[in-house]
Amino acid sequence: MAELATIARPYAEALFRVAKVGDLAAWSDLVTEMAHVAAHPDVQALSHNPKVLDSDMAATFVSLLKSPVNDEARNFISMLVENGRIALLPEIGAQFQALKNAQEGAADADITSAFAISDAQVSALLLVLEKRFGRKLNPSVSVDNNLIGGVRVVVGDEVLDTSVRARLQQMHVALAA
User: Fold this and answer.
1) I want to staple 161 with a disulfide (CB 3.0 to 4.6 A). Which of 34, 51, 140, 166 is the partner?
2) Which residues pair with 110 in a beta bridge?
3) What is the C-alpha separation between 29 and 116, in angstroms, rounded?
4) Which of 65, 139, 46, 68 is nearest to 101 (CA)?
């Protein structure tokens, strides 16, 4: 979906410039929430309904947000609705987060574990991973029983897979060759 990314980029960059002037953390939370709301199938269907006025769609979208919405965010949402671009919000959110991470010298880390891990274990794992990847990491932890044991970490386009399943697959390939 390179086309969506190309269309979303100017919106994300403009929104990021506005957010840098204000509270970047609050904007980041708001953009993430807007992306989640916009990705909902009912919101998508409503945005494609020609009988719904743009002003009604924008007002409905704002009412679905839990975070406080300032005038700049309202104008942004209205502009996206008027241009038929509300469906771009998930991609805009992803690019906004990438811009924020680049400014902070950080990256998102998707950590998948075979079993639930405590906050203390996540903190200890993050210390090791931040040294390994050479930057601050923002963790997102999930559980996948199919890993059997260990963890799988994805940071950008880098993957560190220390799961038992990965090791078994490596052994299978070695034995089958």
Assistant:
1) 166
2) 140, 154
3) 25
4) 139
